[in-house]
From TrEMBL:
Alphabetical list of InterPro entries matching this protein: ABC3_permease_C, MacB_PCD, Macrolide_Exporter_MacB
Cell membrane recorded as keyword: yes
Keywords for the protein's UniProt record, in alphabetical order: Cell membrane, Membrane, Transmembrane, Transmembrane helix
Start and end residues of each ABC3 transporter permease C-terminal domain: 299-408
Protein name as annotated: ABC transporter
Lineage, uppermost ranks: Bacteria, Pseudomonadati, Pseudomonadota, Gammaproteobacteria, Lysobacterales
Record membrane topology: Multi-pass membrane protein
Subcellular location: Cell membrane
A cellular component term, taken from the record's GO annotations: plasma membrane
Amino acid sequence: MSLSIMLKVLRRHALMPTLVLLQVALACAILCNVLFLVWQRVQPMVAPSGLAENELVLVDQIASRVRPWTGAEVRAGQLALSRTPGIRSASAALGLPMISMMMIDYTLQSPRGVKVGVNGYFGEGLVTSLGLQLIAGRDFLPAEYRDFGVNQSSSAVPGTASPEPIIITQSLARQLFGDQPAVGQMLKVPDEPDGHGYQVIGVVRHLMRNQLSLATDGRADNTLLAAKRIGDTAMVGYAVRIDPAMREVAMRGIRDTIKREFGPLMAEDIQAKIDTYAERRHEALTSARAALWLFAGVTLAVIVVTAIGIMGLTGFWVQRRTRQIGIQRALGARRGQVMRYFMVENLLIAGAGVMVGMALAYVANGVLMHYYELPRLPWNYMPIGGVVVLLLGQLAVLAPARRAAEVPPVVATRSI
């Protein structure tokens, strides 16, 4: 049967094709947006951290109940931790991967005018303590560190006209400088036109940012290390790299050291947290995993409902056209031709539904952006969702089409 005759039949019996088309369009619109949201949640989970994960212990929420910790107390804690059995290195830090208690944001601008928002980590010796892999340039020299305290009333941050050395990630270097070598390049902060600026002295392969909601679309590594030594601060944390073979000894030593160095002054209502990186990562991604399971359930429900709907409507339609099918078989139509007819017919209806659904997905994403501050749906998710729905529609119509192909010619002759 030609395509024009098939379209004429569809126009003559428009109700069923319209219902299938609307169901496919709705399924496509939902699926495109859900697939996009699922990938948004998955990206932070699969992004490489760049850390020595099996050796890393994170300590944070060391808060004082009477006054800010002084720089001397913070460094004494770092020295005591580094001398604890089973510990290879320790660094006092502000901002650490998988810890959202303190986030440090920068907007960097390259000489080409490219602006990128990044997270910063402060601390002495973090390249070693985090187990980062330097792929270009060098680590900070001891003389390059400057004291930094978050309590500005008691901090003594020395002013300087020279650019501040920073270490950035390979991904960030590509975004800022393209194919040019990053080491030696200058960066500035757009909001500080008269600031000293920053100079890249090293590049690490990966370093996961701690603002996980932005660790998507290639931004998971938008991170820098600044040459800042932790000074006075109300709350401090440590990155501790341990010997995996002495994990139990090291963990016990860290707890004892923190208690000994800070215990008398620690706030009673804020407990210091001492966890391995794996434990902290599991905790930080809890909400992302819950959302992922929710979206997976929605996706499965959309697929099942769409398949059942297409099967039910197509099966009902086939039943109503049993006499027509029988006549075609009596006139010589083979089973394969009848089956192909229903498959092509469903492909036309589902294809039209997918076109409508992709437009609907774009509109729905605009509404979600307005009310829930979601990012724009990339265009490539729409054909992906469309192809999935088309394949699903063809699989769903397979059983009704086979039943139609098995209608014997005698059915037609009985009703004449």
